[in-house]
Each structure stands twice: as structure tokens, then as C-alpha cells.
Amino acid sequence: MSLIVHHLNNSRSQRILWLLEEIGAPYDIRFYDRDPATNLAPPELLAVHPLGKSPVIEDDGRVITESGAIVEYLCERHGGGHLVPAHGTDDHVSHLEWLHFAEGSAMTPILLRIYTARLGEAAAVLEPRIVQQLDAHFAYMESRLGTNGHFIGDSLSAADIMLSFPAEIAIMQGMAPRYPKLAAFVNACHDRPAWRRARDKGGAYYGY
Fold first, then answer.
1. Which of 55, 87, 182, 206 could bridge to 13 as Cys pair (CB 3.0-4.6 Å)?
2. Under DSSP, is residue 29 helix (H, G, I), strand (E, B) or coil?
């Protein structure tokens, strides 16, 4: 099997497993565990890519990093265009925006919250800004989520898969009452057979 996912426990690489299950592409998993004290990825990932981060995939020996790029590559190379709106349409432009929003704009305040949580009172000066940015990004997602439960069109897209992680973070932080559409979106994602297969193969993460 030529396609390998370098999968870190409790990480965004879970989405790549889910995507592969949705498109039905065969793959192998290489497992890595976070350091229990630092919560950082193990040094073994540095042998795969100099940044030592996950997700990383290998396809016929080609190493590919960055979640958005991996998703685009897999949909095009192994998915036959499945889960991607037709090129040249407004939905495709929106799809690209959401793919990169998920790892760019949305993850910035989420990561700041994770890192500053270890600083205690030293982070107090940053907390109001972090809270404001988390609320702004989650509220934006809530406002753009369609009544059909998807961010684009009438069926699951790769953008939905990418956006599942920040949506899960919002619900894990107790924001379901404020963002009921996001809560319903997360539940619907978790009800998909492909999501469940990916969880069973990759291991439960962050309580899911």
C-alpha cells in the first residue's frame, strides 16, 4: 500500500483518516504518541518532516504536509473530485476559503488559548483578546452554516471535514448553548459511518 498517514494521537490528523474513509482510498497508518508531560509530538516525527508535525502523508514516496494541502491533494488524486464543488463555480471558491479558514484564521485563537493556558496569571492580559477572537470566529462559523447542516452546498464537502475540528473545539469548551448549529454539525459528523471507522482506526481523541 503506497499511501501512508503519519498519525499523531489527539491531533488534527484524525480528519485525514476521516477523509480517506469517506473517499474509500486504501491507506496505512503510522502511529505516534504525544509526550505525556509536554503534550508535544515525539521526536520520531522529525524523521518524517523537519518540523516534526502531524498530519503528514506519504504517497509513493512523496511527503506532503499541511492539512489543507493534504485534503486538496487527496480529493484530487484519490477521490476523483468527490467532496469538492465543481471548479469554476462560486461554491468552489467558497470551498477554498473554508479549507484555509479552518487552519488559518480559526486555529490562531484556538492555539493561543492552548498555549496561554499553561501560563496561568501571566496570560491574563491576553485573555480578553483571545476570548473575543474565539467568539468572533465561532460566531462566524455559526452564521455561515447552512440549514442543511453543511457549510457549502447540500452534502458533505472536504471543507466540512476541515471545519469539524474547530467546531469540536467550540463544543468541548462548553459553547454548545451559544452555537447550537455548530453543536448539531459536530453531532452529524460523528454520526457518519466513515467518521466512526476513522475513529476506530486512529483511536479516540479529545474525548470523542
1. 55
2. strand
Q: Is residue 30 helix, strand or coil?
A: strand
Local confidence pLDDT in tens for the 208 residues of the chain: 589 999 999 889 999 999 999 999 999 999 999 988 888 889 999 899 898 889 999 999 899 999 999 999 999 999 998 899 999 999 999 999 999 999 999 999 999 998 898 888 888 999 999 999 999 999 999 999 999 999 999 999 999 999 999 999 999 999 999 999 999 999 999 999 999 999 999 987 877 8
d(C-alpha 37, C-alpha 52), whole Å: 17
For 176-207, give the DSSP string: TTT-HHHHHHHHHHHHSHHHHHHHHHH---TT
- CA 93, CA 84: separation in Å to the nearest integer? 10
Please identify which residue in the block is written with the cell numbers 467532496.
83
Cell numbers for 74: 487527496
Cell numbers given for 167? 467546531
CA gap 88, 136 in Å, rounded: 30
State how far Cα 145 lies from the chain centre: 16
Distance in angstroms (rounded) separating the CA atoms of residues 48 and 177: 41
Q: What is the pTM of this model?
A: 0.94
DSSP 109-145: HHHHHHHHTTTGGGGTTTHHHHHHHHHHHHHHHHHHS
